[in-house]
Each structure stands twice: as structure tokens, then as C-alpha cells.
Amino acid sequence: MPKVNHEYVIRKKNSIIEAALSVCKVKPLYEITMKDIIHASGLSQGGIYRYYSDLDEILVAVINQSNSNVEYTQEIDAINDNSNSPKETIENLFTFLGKYIKENLPIVGKIQFELTIIFANNPERQKKMLSSISENESGQYLIERLFSTIHEGISNGSFKPVISPEDIFPFIMTSIDGIVRDVVLQKCYGMFHNAEKPLDEIRLLDTLCKSVLLLLGSK
Fold first, then answer.
1. 3-state helix/strand/coil string of 42-108
2. Cα angle vertex 26, ends 23, 29, to 5°?
3. What's the whole-model pTM score?
4. Residue 4: DSSP 8-state
5. DSSP assignment, residue 159?
6. Distance (Å, rounded) from C-alpha 57 to C-alpha 32?
7. 61: nearest Cα among 124, 96, 9, 6
8. 109 within 8 A of 188, measured Cβ to Cβ
9. How many CB atoms lie within 10 A of CB 87?
10. Tens of pLDDT, residues 12-26
């Protein structure tokens, strides 16, 4: 094969990732085959393997690119800097999270949900893929800021919790996980189609926020 420059290789790998992402939008991650990506990319089988060793390497690249596209730590810092009280910070963080879920769940949420299914059924693939998947630091950062704000509000007397923070924190995490799961199931897979109306991520997060503030005894 003739020598090619680095930029050419990057362009080719990115085009393969884009082709794989287009497949992820219409087919469950756990059902995707290398043949699907070859067809979507327009490359030959040999052409694909020049840039990626196997299917899992491509899927990891898609996941890492999706994670890198949701960098929002600066927006979280702006919320923290521009809020006038711990209560306002919490309200603004939940509002931001609701809007983020609404905008990104059809792609990022779907991929992450289907990845858990792959891992549950293929421990070896989990071990192999997790070692190469870059963590979405923005999501962790938002939770850290939320919990830090709660501690700050308790310390300065803004909050008088009716239950311990050690019980409130798991409640927040499991509630967010449940909202994300059910919204993904409804909007990406058509489940709960008999519900009176579609789930509204923003309203659900707003309700969760109000519940948390009540548990915190917010003034």
C-alpha cells in the first residue's frame, strides 16, 4: 500500500466513524456487524481493516467521539458563578440537565443504554471495550457540582435536610437514571406508547428538583 500522510488517515478514520454512527442511529448497538459499517462507509472489507482492527474498536471510537461532543463543564461553571444562592444553583443545574437530556438523548443516551446490554451479555467484550472508552467527565462534573452545592447549602444554613444527605444523594442518582432510561425506551424504542402523552424530560427534572429541595428543607 502506498504511503499516506497522517491527515489522510485521520480523515478516513473519521469517515468510518461517521458511517458507524449513522448505523447506530437506526440499529441497536448490540446487533451491528462489521458488514453494516462496510456497507455504510462504502469501503471494502480490506479498506476498513486498514484503519480498525475489529468491530469493537470502531464502536469504541464512536462512543469516545460522542462523549467528546458533550463537553459542558464551562456551562456548569457559569451556572455556579451566576447563581445567587445554593437553591438557585440547584434549580439551574436541574434545568440545564433537563435541556441536555432532551437535546442529546436520541444519540448519546441510546448508545449508552445499548452499551449496557452488550456488557451484560458479553463480559469479555466489556473488559476489552471499557479499557479503551474515555469517561464522560462532564456528566461526573455536573453531579459533583450538584452534591457540592448541597453540602454548601447545609453548611451555611440555606438547607435544613429532613433526611440525611447520604440518603438524598442515591435518591438523586437513581431518579436521574430512571428518567433517562424511560425516556430512551419511549423515544428510541417506542415503548410506553399507550401513555397519555410523551415523557417530558424538562418537566421530569423540574419535578425531581422540587422534590430534592423539599427533602433539603430549602428556605
1. CCCHHHHHCCCCCHHHHHHHHHHHHHHCCCCHHHHHHHHHHCCCHHHHHHHHHHHHHHHHHHHHHHH
2. 65
3. 0.81
4. -
5. -
6. 13
7. 9
8. yes
9. 18
10. 999 999 999 999 988
